[in-house]
Design a protein that fits this description.
This protein has 618 residues and is an alpha+beta fold. The protein is 36% helix and 14% strand. The longest helix has 21 residues, at 195-215. Residues 383-560 form the L,D-TPase catalytic domain.
Length: 618
Amino acid sequence: MTSLRFYLSACVAVLCLVSSAAIAENSVQNQVVDPLGLHDNDAVLAAAVPGPGRQETADSAAPAASQSVPEPAVEPSAKTRIKSIEPSVAAPETTATTETSDPLAGRDAFDRGVFRSFLKKAPRLEGDETKEAVIDFYRGRRHESLWTKGKGLSVQGEALIKQVRSAPDHGLKQEDYLPHAYLTRNGGLSDWPAQHEVELDLTLAYLALADDLASGAVDPMSTGSEIYLQPKHLSVEDLLERLDEAKSIPALMASFAPKDPAYAKLQEKLKHYRQLAARKSYTHVPSGKTLRKGDVDARVPALKRRLSEEGFYKGSLDDTDQHYDGDVVEAVKAFQRANGLSADGVAGRNTFTTLNISLEQRVRQIEANLERLRWYDYQATGSFVDVNIADQTLKVVRNGLTIHQTRVVVGKPKYKTPIFSHAISYAEVNPTWTIPRSIALKTYLPMLQRDPTEVMRRGIRVFHGNREIDPRSIIWSTVKPRFFNFTLQQRPGRNNALGGVKYMFPNRHAIYLHDTPSKHLFSRSGRAFSHGCIRVENPFDFGDLLFKDEGWDKDRLMKLRSKSSNPQRINLSNKVPVHLRYFTAFVDAADTVQFRFDIYGNDARLIEALETRSAPFS
């Protein structure tokens, strides 16, 4: 599918180069070398079909499977033929094609022989994995058109173009799928290619849009570091098979989009923010001193206008009132909550910086997060753990409902928490902490060089190979980082960096969920403080939900924690999926769109990737 997108971007150039005369010449040449007569006119082709009363023209519907014309034995067997595809809505939704209104009117009727030869030589299919699948698909149809009928578009073709026009509803660009003339339908006849080219263009548009909706438009791993999500593209064969089985083009395309309710909610917010951005009423609020309740400041009228633009403030916009109190303070609190800031009503630097993010940028941010949702398959049943790194929260979701939510601490920008999915398999109460080499070199080697007894007071043991050594026996000042051949391990205890419990999903990144003795960090609005692992605010409440069915509720886990000082492992009979994800825009339970600071700088790269992934049609 990747190379398909590159071929689509060259579509206009190809369309302009192909002339009707060249097509006619190609048809004549193919008739000479085709011993089966498959390039003759439709009457000859229909005559080859066995069975009484067989009548068919280029405008007729696809024949039933039992009436298919046998292909030469040297070619692969044909796939199941396309069933009749009905529009999903009443007639007003699809524009009827007529000789006077359709730009295709007046073109030569579709010629199956020309189309068969064209598919084998089409530049946009050459060298692409799509080629054989598309050829096989149309062979199963006896090379009848799907998207065109007679001298115009079929109902299916009209419906598909309408779906392409709705690509912006998903944060995608319609111009990435079809040339401008197809989308506007108001160009002259010279803007339209030959019928067989229209047919292929629409097939490729279907494949590209369907795959983008189902799997995402860009490779996740190309949009930032520490992202480990493999593209889940559907095969061309699968996409064509689903087209083969479909009864409605709109319903088929809707089936590719994410089923996660968060997707439809975010689509609604995209529509809303586009409307806000279109008003061109964005108000800039000058920065300056911090505003506190009771202050009088000349910026207050601008602040009220800015808050009103997103619906946070609904009071008077009297420019003479410069008092910062009452409804204005409450509106600032609501704005702060919706942007992951401390909701204290104090308008300081972070609040003003966030207020001055343009509405156009918010639109692009929502589009980027719709793309992120397309990277995942939605799990409607069972339980899973969902960590939003950008929001710094953890949720336990069961049968589509959030049954537990808590704050977490995630990796600093220098030590990004990686984005990936796995499954929790066990917990360890009173864990030891084997200190990662990077942390040992940066934090503990200098400590050992200053005072080896300091690591001893912290309960840290030093190993050389499998042998524990006394840290005072080493002259640490002579140990260089590249020759640091020691392992550091912290004993269980109150000062252990992992706290009282850790939840393991063994992975190559050495990332897991765990308790922490640094509870004060959970009160911060921004909680990117770790070296990559995820610290959980209420780890035993979380464990209760995961392990209760194993006979380990919160009380029993905490008793085990206090009764023993040794590590105790508890296995899960059924592993629980865990997703470490990154969403900077989402809709909460109160139907308020929530924006979060892009702590790892991933938004800008994703927005650029969506914008530049292919050259738009002109």
